[in-house]
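re the bet — no i am not wrong, look at it urself. input seq straight from the record:
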Amino acid sequence: MNLSEFDYELPKSFIAQKPLQKRDHSKLMVLNRDKRSISHHQFFELPELLDSNSVLVFNQSKVIPARLSFKLGNGKGEILLIKALSEKTWECMVRPGPKFKAGNEIEIDPQLSLSIKSITTHGLRVIEFNVDDLNAYLKQNGQTPLPPYVKEKIEDSNRYQTIYAKTEGSVAAPTAGFHFTEDVFKNLKEKGIETAFVTLHVGLGTFQPVKTEKIEEHQMHSEYYELSEETAKQLNTAKKAGKKIIAVGTTSVRVLETAANEDGKLVAGSGETDIFIRPGYRWKFIDGLITNFHVPKSTLLMLVSALAGKEFILEAYETAKENNYRFFSFGDSMFIQ
């Protein structure tokens, strides 16, 4: 398939720049694949819209303050930590690139210096951080790395986290979970809807732009995931009982579809996944998806198109614009059932 098939026009005014005051007051578009119908709701209605025979699966990864800005020569330098290779060695995006040549040593401040070990095929730098405690340094000096299309600063960095974020390691948030509140969880529990939690540390694989016109030639950057024995058992039991597995966010989808074997059974474990889900993919485990509205030509748009059909998704996006939905990270939500 061609990359241009996943393009759509989006005026900048539709891109949400700030989170809503109340997380669960975002709009919720429901796509019914069987009826090919679209309906409009608010997110706090989700428990009423879900079949009581459903299980929601969340990504509990937590965003770290992974962006470092500092004085570099007569200008500015910037590093975005992307993926941990060891406790103090990370793959990173950097700028300006020419200042970060392999073999260079850079002193940031008395606490931190860098060793540029190598440059990857993606143009990332493998950097060793020479510091006593990198996590502590980042918490003191790093910033939350907001997406480039968010131009306004947010007052509370916790709004770029889900309320259930637990395991540190992501450099971008699993944003489909932003809409969930304690009230929504309470109402889900009252209806008897199960919840389960997995981990995928969001990195370059999730938001890396596709640069090949033939999408099949795109190579995903791998991301770390974990699926516990307990959760695998819970979800396998639910699936066997005929319950509907609803992934919250594309990152949860990637964990479940990576961990599912050809018989449609989850195998617990951890490791790297570079799964690229696009139209034509044979689904193994999930039955539905709660997600946001995605960037044109992105692998995320391709993933939802694989689930609901490209034409139906693009029709839904046009409908969203007609109804003033807010797009991307701080935007509104979609439930594909």
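see?? The radius of gyration is 20 Å. told u. also Helices lie at 46-49, 134-141, 182-190, 204-207, 229-240, 250-259, 299-308, 310-322. so pay up
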